[in-house]
Amino acid sequence: MTDKHTAGVHHITAIAGPSQENIDFYVGVLGLRLVKKTVNFDDPGTYHFYFGDERGNPGTILTFFPWKNIPQGRVGSGQVGYTTFAIPKGAMPFWEKRFNQFHIETEKETRFNEEYLKFEDPHGLKLELVEREEGPLNTFEFNGVTKDVAIKGFGGAVLYSGSPRKTADLLESGLGFEKIAEEDMYLRYRSKSDIGNKIDVPVKAFPRGEMGAGTVHHIAFRADDYDDQQDWRTYISDKGLQPTDILDRQYFTSIYFREWGGILFEIATDVPGFDTDESLEHLGEELKLPNWLEQHRNQIEQIVDPIEVREVKPK
């Protein structure tokens, strides 16, 4: 089989604290759209929120499992270190002002001749913004975040690997990313897409991370469709890794495997998307359950906290 190439990041899934705090930050402050409100299929008493652009396009989707009393995690090797969001050119001053208004601490870093604005969410997840020309504008507008400054989706991610060179090799020879730059502490890889397309790998290994609030559970890369994913599963197996069976996640299908540096990778299909059980106009408005959980709806609704999408103002 010839080498395969993913289009880039499909989604990133992280762990959060209380549900309403999670929604208030990502919708109210960052201006993302809640495109799906469902539950963790493996733990149906826990929400699973999907935030993204107006349609929840692949490459824009940050998802969360929120737990009210979960211990704080520690970001380290075997995890995504920073989740990178792309914003339009010229939008950085807006975000610096907005974060100042909301009392969000920031710092700047220059990497590969790009300026990054680094910050954390209320539960400690490490995030950063970078201006990029590429990628379409996000037309979703909410609470003062207009489309000319709105987060487009992922710029990519920074991977904290226990074996950086092996992770880098898998990105290149396994997932089809192209190595485009190397400087100081970082290697940079790029996929063919115009969003979610750049992965940076620090060349030093970090102390082992611990899963908990404020950490990334896994990073998912894109497959075109179910047939393409079957090919990916065979291909990843042939690389000596151990992918799971193909799992139905309602809005895509998935395989998971842990790469050589300890990071949990997923490959997820672009189809069918988030409008399979809600219209685009009403994405994220109702609690959606897969057919096999629908019989437990009443019980689930009594367990999960009531939440709302609302505008939030600086305190």
From TrEMBL:
Pfam families documented for this protein: Glyoxalase
Domain VOC: 8-132, 153-270
Entry keywords, A to Z: Dioxygenase, Oxidoreductase
Entry's Gene Ontology molecular function annotations: dioxygenase activity
CDD domains xref list: PcpA_C_like, PcpA_N_like
The UniProt record lists the keyword Oxidoreductase: yes
UniProt keyword annotation of Oxidoreductase present: yes
Gene3D superfamilies, A to Z: 2,3-Dihydroxybiphenyl 1,2-Dioxygenase, domain 1 (3.10.180.10)
Annotated InterPro entries: Extradiol_RC_dioxygenase, Glyas_Bleomycin-R_OHBP_Dase, Glyas_Fos-R_dOase_dom, VOC_core
Annotated SUPFAM superfamilies: Glyoxalase/Bleomycin resistance protein/Dihydroxybiphenyl dioxygenase
Domain of life: Bacteria
Name of this protein: Ring-cleaving dioxygenase
Gene source species: Piscibacillus salipiscarius
Record lineage: Bacteria, Bacillati, Bacillota, Bacilli, Bacillales
